[in-house]
């Protein structure tokens, strides 16, 4: 169990992280808890205790290597959450994805769905809530969800994509055939099912042509 | 409009095709309408007229090149139908696929769905009927559908795959994570959505790790 004291430490960690990122951008490559304490006006003992929750990279003389400390803090704070996704669009396809069992086997999961259709709000699919799209920004930030799944009609694809990237979503799994315009640093994975079907169809027709040329598939 | 006569020709074409395939396997590489007429006890004029519906490859002295004539007949009879598919499993995912608009843009389409769930029989999704699985063999043969889409629970995947291949389906688009055992000559395209999601998740985590090493994504 985490005591009151550790919980207070936890609340201070994002402050350290913001501070460290500024220092890192200034070119600082390692930093001591004494220096951090001085800049943030806290006791060095407190700082060491707080940081020890997330990182064991501190060394007596040199302090913390900056990159490692930042990475440790981000990981600890869940900034590296790359397994959870929000789904936009709870139509046929969205609902199919919400109830797709195999995601768990790969350690990935959809936490909730968002839709503009009011009649769906408050409903659940396979235990996952369907919420108003207006709730997306706040929840994405609070839950640090960085993957968005886009399963909306083509006409809404770009606007919903924009909404997602504006609230910190950095990877988009795109089930629409719409080409998405995205800010730098955002990853898109296009899942074009129609193209996939067309490839299979083409493979089959090539196989059939080859068989005809070879004189039938029977030996 | 196709007259009565042409329609009678049409009914004879499969007989020619069966005969030609036997000859082809015997090593015959070209054949005249006279020879076909002789073997099938029809008039040469009739044979020429019938074949002219499907092929323009006949030459006065040499007759028809065997491969070309067979390919022409198969194409004409729709044996090369590689654009239409039947769907097995009309659950969430199946229904999503039935109403997926973009297939048309790629010239492929799902004609009907089959399910073991009686409560779905007679219903439609986006104008496409949901039928009993028992109707699959007859319809697949009659409509010459050679592509099957598998969107059933894992436990039914192999048995439904077996059913499909037993009735002439030669290409399977597999949405289950089940590895399918298939007869030789059948093509399988695995559409593992869970693996696709996992790849995106991994790409994101690699990006984040790289950014951390480089000192944040801000410039």
Largest interface (CB < 8 Å): A-B, 63 and 64 residues
CATH topology of the largest domain in chain A: Rossmann fold
Q: Report the oligomer.
A: homodimer
Q: How many structural units, i.e. domains of chain A? A: 2
**Unreliable stretches covering 5 or more consecutive residues of chain A:** none
Helix content of chain A: 40-55%
Q: H/E element string of chain A?
A: HEHHEHEHEEEHEHEEH
Radius of gyration of chain A: 24 Å
What's the story with the biggest beta sheet of chain A? Answer: 7 strands, mixed
Q: Could you state the CATH homologous superfamily of the largest domain in chain A?
A: NAD(P)-binding Rossmann-like Domain
Structure at a glance:
The structure is a homodimer. By secondary structure, chain A is α/β, with parallel strands linked by helices.
């Amino acid at each position: 169990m985490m005591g009151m004291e550790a919980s207070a430490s936890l609340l201070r960690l994002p402050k350290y992280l913001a501070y460290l990122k500024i220092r890192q951008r200034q070119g600082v490559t390692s930093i001591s808890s004494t220096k951090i304490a001085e800049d943030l006006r806290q006791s060095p003992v407190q700082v060491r205790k707080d940081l020890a929750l997330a990182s064991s990279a501190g060394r007596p003389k040199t302090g913390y290597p900056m990159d490692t400390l930042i990475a440790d803090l981000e990981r600890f704070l869940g900034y590296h959450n790359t397994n959870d996704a929000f789904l936009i669009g709870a139509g046929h396809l969205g609902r199919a994805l919400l109830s797709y069992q195999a995601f768990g086997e790969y350690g990935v999961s959809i936490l909730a769905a968002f839709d503009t259709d009011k009649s769906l709000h408050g409903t659940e699919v396979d235990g996952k809530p369907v919420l108003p799209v207006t709730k997306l920004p706040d929840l994405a930030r609070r839950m640090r969800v960085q993957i968005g799944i886009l399963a909306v009609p083509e006409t809404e694809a770009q606007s919903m994509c924009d909404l997602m990237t504006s609230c910190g979503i950095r990877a988009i799994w795109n089930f629409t055939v719409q080409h998405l315009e995205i800010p730098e640093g955002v990853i898109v994975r296009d899942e074009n099912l129609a193209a996939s079907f067309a490839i299979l169809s083409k493979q089959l027709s090539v196989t059939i042509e080859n068989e005809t040329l070879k004189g039938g598939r029977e030996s």
